[in-house]
Amino acid sequence: MFLNPNKSILRKMLTSSIVTVLLGLCAVGLVISLFAKDYIVNSKSNEMIRQAKQVNLAIQNQTGPSDRLKEQLRFFDEAFDARIWIFDLNGNIVTTSSKDEVNVGKVVSTKVVNQVLKGEPTIWHQSEGFKEGMLSIAVPWGKDNDVYGGIVLHSPLKGMNETIAQLRETILWVTLLGIFFSFGVSSYLSWSITRPIQQIDKAAAKIAIGDYSERIQIDSKDEIGELATTINHMVEQLARVDLEKRQLNQLRHDFLANVSHELRTPLTAMQGFLEALQDGLIEEGARDKYYEIMYNETLHMNRLVDDITDLMKLENKEIDLVWLAVDVQAMLSKLAFKFQPEAELRGTFIHCLVDEFPPQAHADPDRLEQILNNLIKNAVKFTENGTIELKAMAVPSEGYVLITVTDTGIGISPDDQGLIWERFFKVERGRPVKHKGSSGLGLAIVRELVELHNGSIRVRSELGIGSSFEVRIPLYDSRPYVQPLVNLAGVG
């Protein structure tokens, strides 16, 4: 899955950059070369026109060939490094700056003669009569309005061609240097892009097989850096989702195993009793006892199904609370009265403390009663020959009602205190059989209901001393109480 170097971005970027630079520099070089050639020729032509006019100023008083004229022409030839011709009105060359008079008597082009006689400088390329090409210009020869003929200056094109060739060579070297520089810059840029892409590719390959441990280490703040940050964040999210999925699968597996275990025990017992009754193995007088056991097992299964249903609704957010002002102290008094007979069978007394200012909680009455019912039921279940204390007090400064259920029962070990909120966890494991019979879902439901009320719950417990559950539920009105609420009259 890693990048193929033959088709990688690195190769593509290098090729495109070098081709772009090469074409760009070649185009620029060609344009510069053409413009430079024109510029050099034009500059040289203008310079030669000025030189020809200087020659005319020196010889304008001479109307015909003479030794003095030849000497002057030779002087200007050496000074300007240019061959000089003088022609008459008919275009006949009458004298030159050369020591050999090979061009004397020859005729200048009629077109050149006509333009010169009009007073216009003329520029052309001359090769006839010379060993190499010449840049030639012609200006009128004369004084004021008297024109005797024309003055021609010839300058070798070789020097100008050499200058242009040197310019082109310079452009070539600059092009090669540009290609080399472009190769270096493109290599670095390509590497800076392909390296993180390879890291991203490596991370993606691991993600594809479910390995979320890989992280992309890129420090750049550009788009690739942002992409790497996004991918790292995505990997963390995928890892979290994968972990939650595994945990959910484990919870589902444990849940099904626990439900199966909880149902199997009473069903096995009921099956055995029914088979015994069906086969007539149980005497008539003992049948009522077996019927009672089967009835209790049926109640246990019903409670288990009800608890599972409540827990599923809570976890799926399917329970809507009816928010009302709830007199917590009155509710505790009612529950104390409800559980007192069962507690007395265990030699336990339930004591409900009465506050002068009974607090009101902002809660769903039915669900709050379910919370307190489970807590008090557990306290009664695990307390013998002791006391259970129920108390509710307002904490206006923090905006909640503190409800405590304290018992002097067998207590909970420190190792189990963090596990009692888990589904199907039973603190009575290893205890006498008479403590068994719960579904192990009560405290899990309690915690879910408390959190649904935007409250909190905690436990304090010591083995052999007892336990205290503290529930915090929001106050109906968090303002300080200024008068007692008279709605508990007659409740003790």
From TrEMBL:
<dbReference type="InterPro" id="IPR050736">
    <property type="entry name" value="Sensor_HK_Regulatory"/>
</dbReference>
<dbReference type="GO" id="GO:0005524">
    <property type="term" value="F:ATP binding"/>
</dbReference>
<keyword id="KW-0547">Nucleotide-binding</keyword>
<feature type="domain" description="HAMP">
    <location>
        <begin position="191"/>
        <end position="243"/>
    </location>
</feature>
<dbReference type="Pfam" id="PF02518">
    <property type="entry name" value="HATPase_c"/>
</dbReference>
<dbReference type="InterPro" id="IPR036097">
    <property type="entry name" value="HisK_dim/P_sf"/>
</dbReference>
<dbReference type="Pfam" id="PF00512">
    <property type="entry name" value="HisKA"/>
</dbReference>
<dbReference type="InterPro" id="IPR036890">
    <property type="entry name" value="HATPase_C_sf"/>
</dbReference>
<keyword id="KW-0067">ATP-binding</keyword>
<keyword id="KW-0472">Membrane</keyword>
<dbReference type="InterPro" id="IPR003660">
    <property type="entry name" value="HAMP_dom"/>
</dbReference>
<dbReference type="InterPro" id="IPR003594">
    <property type="entry name" value="HATPase_dom"/>
</dbReference>
<keyword id="KW-1133">Transmembrane helix</keyword>
<keyword id="KW-0418">Kinase</keyword>
<keyword id="KW-0902">Two-component regulatory system</keyword>
<feature type="domain" description="Histidine kinase">
    <location>
        <begin position="258"/>
        <end position="477"/>
    </location>
</feature>
<keyword id="KW-0812">Transmembrane</keyword>
<dbReference type="GO" id="GO:0000155">
    <property type="term" value="F:phosphorelay sensor kinase activity"/>
</dbReference>
<dbReference type="InterPro" id="IPR003661">
    <property type="entry name" value="HisK_dim/P_dom"/>
</dbReference>
<dbReference type="GO" id="GO:0005886">
    <property type="term" value="C:plasma membrane"/>
</dbReference>
<keyword id="KW-0808">Transferase</keyword>
<feature type="transmembrane region" description="Helical">
    <location>
        <begin position="171"/>
        <end position="191"/>
    </location>
</feature>
<dbReference type="InterPro" id="IPR004358">
    <property type="entry name" value="Sig_transdc_His_kin-like_C"/>
</dbReference>
<dbReference type="Pfam" id="PF00672">
    <property type="entry name" value="HAMP"/>
</dbReference>
<protein>
    <recommendedName>
        <fullName>histidine kinase</fullName>
        <ecNumber>2.7.13.3</ecNumber>
    </recommendedName>
</protein>
<keyword id="KW-0597">Phosphoprotein</keyword>
<dbReference type="InterPro" id="IPR005467">
    <property type="entry name" value="His_kinase_dom"/>
</dbReference>
<keyword id="KW-1003">Cell membrane</keyword>
